[in-house]
Every structure is written in C-alpha cells, then in structure tokens.
Amino acid sequence: MTASTVDGPIAGAVAEGTLPGRVWMYANYHCNIACVYCLTESGPRVAPRVLDAQAMLDVARQAAELGFTDLGVTGGEIFLRPEMPDLLAEISRHLPVIALTNATLFQRRLLDRIDVLAGLPVALQISLDRPDADANDAMRAPDNFAKVVAAIPELVARGISVRIATTVESIDDVELDRLCALHRGLGVPDEDHVIRPIVARGRAIDHGLGVGAVVTDLPAELTITADGAFWSPFGPTVHGGLLDTDLLITRTTAPLSVPAKALLRLVEGQPRGADSALNIR
Ligand code: SF4
Hints:
Layout: H1 9-15, E1 22-26, H2 53-66, E2 70-74, H3 84-91, E3 97-101, H4 108-114, E4 122-127, H5 133-139, H6 144-157, E5 161-168, H7 173-185, E6 193-197, H8 203-206, E7 223-225, E8 228-230, E9 238-239, E10 242-243, E11 248-250, H9 257-268
Parallel strand pairs: 1-2, 1-7, 2-3, 3-4, 4-5, 5-6
Antiparallel strand pairs: 7-8, 8-11, 9-10
C-alpha cells in the first residue's frame, strides 16, 4: 500500500498538508545516560514506560492504512530494548522510519545485530551537539562524544542511514563549521544534519535551559506512548517525575484512527496562519 492508494480523512489531510505525515512512538523512557536538557527526565533509574512491540507494529501498520507517510521512534534510549533492531526492521515494512538514539550502546554485539537494518528505510538519528568532547559531554555524559564518533563510521560502513541531530541553545559560526566538518568526516552529509533548539520542558526546566513552546509552536505530529496519544513528540515529557499531560489528546491509542481523528479535529480548529516553528526532526 502506498499513500497515494489510501483514501479517507487522514490521508486527505496529510496529502493537502493540513496534518503532518509522521507518526511518532515513544518506545520507552529509560536511558543509560541523563542529559541536562532531557525532555523526559530519562536516566538509568526511571520507569521504562515501554510501548510493547505488538503495539508498535500495530501503530506502524495502521498509520500506513490511514494514509500517514512516515514513522518516528524515540525514547529514552531505544536500544536499551534488545529487540529494537529487529523491531525497527519489521516496522519499516509499513513506512519509512527515523529512530532517535544516543549511539552509546553500539559495541560489537549490538553492531552485529544492527546489520539487519542495512539498506532498509530506517535512518538512525544520532545526537551530537558540539565538535569538542568536553563541551559536548558537559551537557550529555562522560565519554559520550568518543562513543558517538566511534559508532557513526561503523554504522555508515554497514550501509545504515545516519543523521546527526544537534541540540543547542546557541552555536556560533566557527563552532558550527567545525561540527559540520566533523560529521562530514564521519560520513554524514550536510543534508542529514539537523540543528534544533533546547525546549524548556523536562529536565531542561531545572537547569534554566531552553525556549518555551506552546501548542502553536509544535507541529501536530501524532505521538503514541504507553500512556496515551499526544499532539507532538514534545508532548509526553516528564517533569518532577510526573508525565506532562497539557498536550495529551486522548488516552485511547488503539485503533490508531481514534487519536488520529481527534488530532485532525484539533488541527482543523486552529486559526489559519498558526504555523508551527519548532520540530524534533
Ligand atoms: S536526551 Fe536522549 S540520550 Fe539524553 S537522557 Fe534523554 S533520552 Fe537519554
């Protein structure tokens, strides 16, 4: 099935640009590190809040059936789930996938298992914020920089699509030039490098970081979690150990048509010109 063969209100809204084509899934909330700006207060000791494999496969299949065009998988660190390489491969049979990762778990065993993604429509989007280890690791974790710059060429050499995401409050031209030279040298071209702001949700609030974001700043990208469906991947954030629900659409996530149609009704209620300015992609 392709988007052009799908009828219905969601397919129509996606085709005309009323509704973004991507559906996000939060695979889990736990992480092996604890970045200072993490939207979800993820870390080694937080509740995993896992969206189980069957639920993720159902979202992927139903998203394609409804007329969405792309999928995103985020967390937490998604590769803490051992089944993730095979699960991403399965999911990508329905729609192309971007999967966000900190790329710090790609030692030999995981690299061997990640081979299953070679040549598939799965892009791993890897966080790399600064061209220097000290500045990068200060916001993320000790040895983060070294692990990331080691992992990226290994993944590229395996034929796996890699994107770089830089999350910063600001970066000057000289530092950005050095960062871009670094990612090109690692095998990632400019078109696969995204720069995005820190958003003042989650742990960023406690560090006085980030820009404020209200609903009209955020693309209406349907986001499915174990706790419900949200307006945006910036919605199901955590602060003070509690899930934020200001961008919750509905606790009902299955069938996917329920939150999808609820989101479409909300989008259609937005005033014209209320274009969103932030994105997680
Ligand atoms: S920003 Fe990503 S890598 Fe950092 S703690 Fe949060 S989930 Fe983990």
